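Incident log entry.

Two folding requests arrived from the same account within the same minute. Monitoring flagged them as a possible duplicate submission, but the sequences differ. Recording both here for audit purposes.

Request one:
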Amino acid sequence: MKRMFELLGNLYKAEHIVEEVLMQVNPARNNDGILYCAVYDYIRPDCTLREYIEHPKRYGCPTMATIERCRRKILERRPELKNPNLDVILGEQEDLFREYARRG
């Protein structure tokens, strides 16, 4: 039970950090790579992205998947942080991928 509370606490902390980054770094709203770098820089500016990716637990960092999930949750709750063109861009990318997948 204690482990579950620790994990939940880490998720709430990650969500808070992602929200802070989204409010402060406009390009992070449109680009996951920028968002990952900005979140990791927020947590430990003295480490490289490679170190974070290879050893996220060592540095107390959320994984990229967790950052992405937090971003989705925040943008549902705070649509003003969302790029108004993002749905169009994502729809176009999804159409391209479907075409790619059909061609095999």
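Request two (distinct sequence, not a duplicate):
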Amino acid sequence: MHGNTKRSTACSFSQRRNLPTALMYTYKITNLMGAIDASKCPHPVVAVLFPGAELLACSVSPAEVTATFASPQTPADLGPLVRVELISNP
């Protein structure tokens, strides 16, 4: 995540296997210091926040990263400059 990037592109990654949407847990990750580098998808911060978790889908934009899993996850604490919010839950 870089605070000075002016990139306006977005990317997405998906490994969804026809799971019912009731089984999806989606987290929104934001960098409170600025824009996110959207050149890599899935974004490397997902592996840092959710080590070992099986990622089903991910999207990356300069504003945020969203990561979707089939089970609830407990994100690693990266301090006050990285916010992780659960945005969908069955």
